[in-house]
UniProtKB/TrEMBL annotation:
It comes from the Bacteria. This is Uncharacterized conserved protein. SUPFAM superfamilies: Homeodomain-like.
Amino acid sequence: MIWHELLGHSADEIAAEYDLTLAGVYAALAYYHDHRVEIDKSIQESKSFVSALRKRTPQE
């Protein structure tokens, strides 16, 4: 949960911002913490892919 970890948003703020239940936000946070390595790796791979794609794509 990038909003929670990096930006310091509380579970209440996330729930309100995205019209989610507080239980759903806590469930997502629990899932993230249980699978942190895999999720962080996937996020980094996506960022690297986007960066490489931007380098190959001509800017107008």
